Sequence to fold (254 residues):
Amino acid sequence: MGFFIVVVVAIVAFGAYWWWSHQKTEEAFQTLLTRDGLQPTSQPCGLSDGLLVMLRACPKGDRRYGLKHGVTGRVTATVAGAAREVDCAAFVWWWEERQTSTDGKGHTTTSYSKRDRVVGAIALPTEVPSVSIAPEGLLTKFGIGGRGDFQLESEEFNRRFDVRVQDRDRALAIRLFDAQFQRFLLEMFRGRSIELFGRVLLVAGDPAGEDSALFGDIKELPGARRDASLVASRLPESFWRGLTSDPGSSGGVA
Fold:
């Protein structure tokens, strides 16, 4: 009887905490929208769930996935050598990972755990090649295993980041990863993922610094928008010059 009471109390306490946390998160979300003049969005910079899940920054997982707490608003950012007013968004991307366990009798149980990450996104003024920059795998950092990613002259950069780019865009990738941009990523974005896709730049992972006035995942959304704008402003001018499209107009995905 005592054990039953303990279980009931634990369930009630967990439910109460979940309700309180949910309410605090929703209040923080509304506070952010009002305070920063933002709008809720389910398609940051025009990207639907179906497009986001194609990116390394937004894993599909093993079952369900999706976007929550998306916000968007206009910012003035220096992109492609000019100050432009563009869409800048942030959101929480979640997915489920399968976990299996086997008991002493050989019975296997399958369950799913929910994971998430904060992502910032900013609209670019023109189409760009698809480039993915993710943290390098642990084994590869120590020289174990092969490398299938795009290699640069800097061994330190190669140890820290896994870069994927299509063969036809290798010349543009060389323009993108000049010495200054590599140094910028090494100093400020280790452990983060950056992706160029269509007319959008995305930065995934926990931003430096949290907004103490907010709660839960919401306190990281302002930093995610800031970091997306910062990375976009550091894309080298030589990279933009290498594009055939005219970067004179701003917007979202074409």
The helical segments are 2-36, 49-52, 138-141, 155-160, 170-176, 179-188, 221-233, 237-241. The radius of gyration is 21 Å. The first strand starts at residue 39 and ends at 40. Strands lie at 39-40, 65-79, 82-102, 108-135, 161-165, 193-204.
